[in-house]
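Researcher: Here's my situation. A collaborator sent me these components and asked whether they could plausibly form a single complex. I don't have experimental data yet, so a predicted model of the whole assembly would be a useful starting point for our discussion.
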Amino acid sequence: MLSLRYIFFFLVIFSYFYFGYFGKNNSLADQKSTFEKPRMLNNFGMPGSIDTPTAESFPDGQFSASSAIFGGTIRTNLSFQISENITAAFRYSRIPSVSGDHRGYFWDRSFDIHYRAFKEKKYLPSIAIGLRDFIGTGLYSSEYIVASKSMGKGIKISAGLGWGRMAGTNSFSNVFGRGSDRTEVNVGVGGNFTLDHFFSGKNSPFLSIKYKLNDKIDLIGELSSDSYSHETSSSKGLVRKSDLNIGIKYQLASDVGIMGTLMHGNSVGVVGILALNPKNPPNKTGFEPAPMPILDKATRLKTGYTNKNDLFEVNDRLLQLDGIKLLRLNLIENRLIVDIVDRNYLNVAQMIGRVARILSKTAPSNVDNFNIFIVDYSTGFYISEVRIDRLSLEKNELLFEGASLLWDSVKIHNVPNEYTKKKKNSFTPLTWSFYPDVDIMLFDPHAPIRWSIGWQSNLEYRVGESTTISGSLKQPILGTMDDVKRGPKVGLPNVRSDFMYYYRDIGNSIYLDNLTIDQYIKPFENIYGVINLGYLEMMYMGARSEIIWKDRNKPYGFGLDIAKARKRNTYGDFGLKNESYSTYLASVYYDLPNRWNIRLDAGKYLAGDYGTTLAVARDFNNGWEIGAYATLTDVSFDTFGEGSFDKGITLRAPLSWFTGKKSQGWRNTIISPIRGDGGAKLELEENKYLFRKINRYGENAFRKNWKRVYR
Amino acid sequence: MKKLFVLFLIPFLLSCSSDELMESEKKDYFSIYKNLIVSDSNKKSTENQLAKQNKNSKWLSKFNQPIILISSADEKIQATLVALGNNQEKLTWVSADGISLTFDNGVLIATRGYTQDLMTMRHKTLKTMFKKRQKDYKKTHRYLNGENDYDDITFICKLSKEVNRNLKILEYSLMADKYTESCKSPRYFYDNEYYLLPKTNIVLKSKQWISPSNQSFFSYNFYAFQKF
């Protein structure tokens, strides 16, 4: 019998991911079947039948959230189709066991990887290989090789061999001659893996048959070799009566599925599945109003043009209609030079196209070139100069290959410091906001989801051209964040793992989240810097400086982040503890071809440990980024404690993807299984970090988005 | 508990900012939730005021610049467009609500402001389409996909002609030549219709397909009846 608690857990997980991050309007999406296949997920959130895997892959880019509940087990899975053939999943599970360390249960995190080596052919099956729970304490640790073949209309048969946990019943000697004993590994505190372990010990066959009844329903039967030894050891778990699992999958919508199961002849289960593909925006290419139409030279000469004295005013008004601010306009011989700030368009090519269209409409006929200088709003940095040939803009507008022909004539330059000297920009000095604030904390075994809802008020004051004072007050009003039972880790200075004391002591009080003076500097053409002084984040105050080198036409950049910080007291006021830390990290950023980007940090982390962080993310060229990072330092896995090292999954979702309207807004989520002290960094608000602000106006950003220049 | 609940509601009710951009983003963000919670937007009445108006030459005389009227396939939504762009004789017409349509010889070659805009079109025989009888021909519609790459759909089209068809436009009744263009791709198909003034290239009325998401629309080229 499912308890209310299980149902609540299931609903909360679904609400969190669906409403909080992935909610969308489905009415316009008409090609979803090629982007999302929720019926392909199994109980583990991977391509499969019920518990067993199949040799299939999700559509490239599909991101899925699913939750399976049966026989005392809860599995909440996040899976991502990394490339056409590779699927990865992160899972948080409740596993009933007589030796369970939390009231008869284990709460366990696990990672899976699945590689489809061969696609199905007319006479040959598809073949896939996979590792389940390959990093961690190994409660689900298993490996498999599986083949799948469609047989006639609507039937798919999959069969394979499983090792580890999947070699529970009907097992026989290792087919690779690796003996009958599985290589023992010392899982220690989890978080690591040993290659020797994989495909060792006995193996068992498994089989599944799927029958597609119609476009919405699949009927599934499978023989699973998982013996469920933990789950059957506890009265809170299941009674395993047979190898047979049966299930029915029903597709509620093109991106939502549900599966009902009868597991091993005893336990009734339910699985809810949500699938989303960043490649498939619900509003297609968006709702932006049409841009300014172009008049060719002959028509312009007939219709006349704007008086030189009115040029700034007219362009300012037209650009404002597109949400772009004109700072300066100069007409020098045949060049029209403008400085602009854009806070609306995520797509820089579209933005520059719209600016050029407006200039083309208003500029005197002798103007042949537009020199557009782009200024970042928050830092005041002049980042790039885009030169557009007016004639090329006009003649290519409606050509089939017009965008690429225009690109050939476009030049993007760094902005020399001489240009920016003595420039004063009329930004509003004071901005403030007051909003609801939602905070979520996952993976506490005592309460898998902790949350708080309250308010946040931000204030920013521009003191000069390149100096701001900004701060944020928060108050949690409702929630469970202040009730974390665990204490901090031992072995390292508690630079991050004592976060629970802050939530506990702040409780429902108003607290100062951050308050800093930010000084932006651009000493050389390609060097950008910031100094932050004050209350940097909830746990630290101090001084931090970041320097970035970035050339507009190079795919890489370098950074250096140095900070000296003192621990704040746990009440969120101005008080400080007598604990000081320093950190310095050098970074390399690289935009790889095929829309992947990497970042490598190396240096000294907050707790005084030395090491590196590697972050890899897939960039969907529409604002979405899905990635992962791992930090390895000279702290031993035992000293780091549970999880062995810092790692996590990163999600960045643009607001414009959901609404279809132009916006640079986004939601950022980091799913980090364990927060330790090893590899810890300062956690300032993301808009305090420079690289993304600069890189978004680099040549690569324009090139990869250029097909949108005429939209 | 009641007090806490009230406190919790206050930020939602009072959320605000001095920055217009943040205000607008906040509204957009909450609209995501609203769209999920409130029923399907398709159920809303979509009929607009312009669609209810009787269009005749008196109504047309109020416009002091050339206009065209476009209408959804069910005629419930209508808009008037004015010509704001002219690039190599390809006219771009723009509506007050931010939609633009670009025609070459009366044939739609680009749209902007729709969710799935026709970015450009490759149609090699467009200029002679209504002049010369031709066999099957190719048209390639260019769209953008969700990752801002091109998504091209190539159609094989056939054009057929019917002469002396009665056409009612405004209060006028005219004889027109009707051209029906039937286009097929492996996944999509559509029929475009063009009503031309006999022995001319002037398209008086047409029904043209934009994209898989936005389907077809009617255009009425009222500028042919305007006097300035």
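Model: Some features of this prediction you could bring to your collaborator: The CA atoms of residues 49 and 128 of chain B lie 38 Å apart. Chain B touches chain A through 64 residues (CB under 8 Å).
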